Amino acid sequence: MSWSKLKQQLEVFLSPALNGRVEYRAPGYRYLPDKSGICYILVDKKNILHMSDKTNPIRWYHTELEIKNDPDIRIPVSSDEIEAVRKGIPGTVPEDRLIVIARSRKSTEHAKELLSAQAALSKSNFIVVANKFLTTPIEESLGSNDILLNVLALVDKRVGKKRILNMSEKIKLKHPIVQYFYELRRNTL
Predict the structure, then answer these.
(1) How far apart are alpha carbons 25 and 48 in whole angstroms?
(2) For the segment 3-44, what is each residue's pLDDT rounded down to a tens digit?
(3) What are phi and psi of 109, to 5 degrees?
(4) How far apart (Å, rounded) are the C-alpha atoms in residues 172 and 79?
(5) How many whole angstroms separate alpha carbon 144 and alpha carbon 130?
(6) Which InterPro entries does the record match to this protein (predicted)?
């Protein structure tokens, strides 16, 4: 599918509140078909997402420790996760220490997922991901670990107000670019 047709289809699914504010750009290089595409997503004429540029306003993580020490990432821990830690450690351990251990384990998993998703985003071909978005159910795109699929789903008009408001806890565990587009969409409700 040509870029102009793909862009047109993506814009059809764009939420009416974001129409004119969010723009998709993917310049192609005619003589380099094996080179992965570059993606620009502009919000209010500002380049918010440029897959190959680490100087954009969204935070790009470089190490697992950086993610674990970020005060903006709050990782909720369930009682089942605390109980799993309790069973895995011999002896008696104070409850507050069990919470710290469970949160540390979960944040390590979360950091690895964020880094792998971020690496996939910088290597991905925007056109391939956009085509996948157009052919998959919106629930699958929202639940995906692919950052670009999450962004495209969040600005989609098929995601209503109730669903946006109900996903606030899940968004806290997503990459900052996904959180940015979530806040953008939530503020237009």
Answers:
(1) 11
(2) 788 889 999 999 999 999 999 987 655 545 555 556 788 999
(3) -60, -45
(4) 19
(5) 13
(6) SF0329-like
Q: Which two tokens stand for residue 141?
A: 């795109």
Q: How would you label 31-52 residue by residue, b for 16+ Cβ within 10 Å and e otherwise?
A: eeeeeebbbbbebeeeebbbbe
Q: Is the dihedral of CA 80, 81, 83, 88 positive or negative?
A: positive
What distance in Å separates the CA atoms of residue 114 and residue 153, rounded to the nearest whole number? 18
- Residue 2 carries which side chain, given as an amino acid letter? S
Torsion angles phi and psi, residue 20, rounded to 5: 90, -20
Type and span of the H or E element at 48: strand 46-50
**Which helix (H) or strand (E) covers residue 116, if one does?**
helix 95-123
Write the pLDDT tens digit of every residue in 143-166. 998 888 999 999 999 999 999 999
Please give the C-alpha separations between residue 99 and each of 86, 94, 95, 105, in angstroms, as whole numbers: 10, 9, 6, 10
How far is C-alpha 66 from the geometric centre of its chain's CA atoms? 17
Q: How far apart are CA 108 and CA 75, in angstroms?
A: 10
CA–CA gap between residue 156 and residue 153 (Å, rounded)? 5
Q: pTM for the complete prediction?
A: 0.72
State the CB neighbour count (10 A cutoff) for residue 10: 19
